[in-house]
Amino acid sequence: MSSDPHSHPQSHWHPDVRSAPALAQRLDRLAMRLLPGGLTALAAILLAAPTGIPGAIALIPGLAMASVFFWSVWRPASMSVPVVFCLGLLLDLIGFAPLGVSAFAFLLLHGTAVHMRFGLMRLNFVTLWLAFTLLESCVCWLLWFLVSSLSFRIMPTAPVIFECMLTAGIYPPFAALGNWAHRRFSNPEPQL
């Protein structure tokens, strides 16, 4: 047995330097996977903050639904079930519904988008937007039904109609930004 530390390439005195890039790559991939959900959560928190911007809080559910749908179709690993669940709970904690209601509705939206993603990816933008509008309207009405059932009274329908229209209007600019981010993450600039 040799006492030379250089004779054993993976000696505890000389760690394998090839593992460092692998760790950095794994951390980079993890950050990219958490970025859409993290940015959506951050936007929800910032919009819920008392900034004095009129109507800012009304954007939160629509922004969250647009994010869940977009990333579930184009990058489902970045909008995983735990991320969607946490986003739904965050919206419930901000005050939109009883705890778990938004999480349940968002999980249904996520599951539908992931299940239909290959068909949705083939659609042109207008048809995809119409599909999103149909799905988000179903989610909004489901939320209305669940909140009405849990509160034992029929909630007003005007806010649901407004939320459906607002969410449909949020999707095009969100999709444009999401498409840019999706291309940017898929083809990052080379390191110099």
How would you describe this structure to a colleague?
By secondary structure, the chain is mostly helical. The protein has one domain (35-186). Helix content is 71%, strand content 0%. The longest helix is centred in the first third of the chain and has 30 residues, at 19-48. It starts with 18 loop residues before the first helix and ends in a 6-residue tail after the last helix. The mean pLDDT is 85.
Can you give keywords for this protein?
Rod shape-determining protein MreD; membrane; 7 helices; 0% strand; mainly alpha; 71% helix; 192 residues; cell membrane
Assembly form of the protein: single chain
Summarize the biggest pleated sheet: none
Please report the number of helical segments: 7
What are the low-pLDDT stretches, counting only 5+ consecutive residues below 50?
none
Q: Determine the structural class based on helices, strands and strand pairing.
A: mainly alpha
> What integer is the average pLDDT?
85
Beta-sheet strand percentage?
Answer: under 5%
Protein name: Rod shape-determining protein MreD
Keywords: Cell membrane, Cell shape, Membrane, Transmembrane, Transmembrane helix
Family: Belongs to the MreD family.
Organism: Acetobacter sicerae
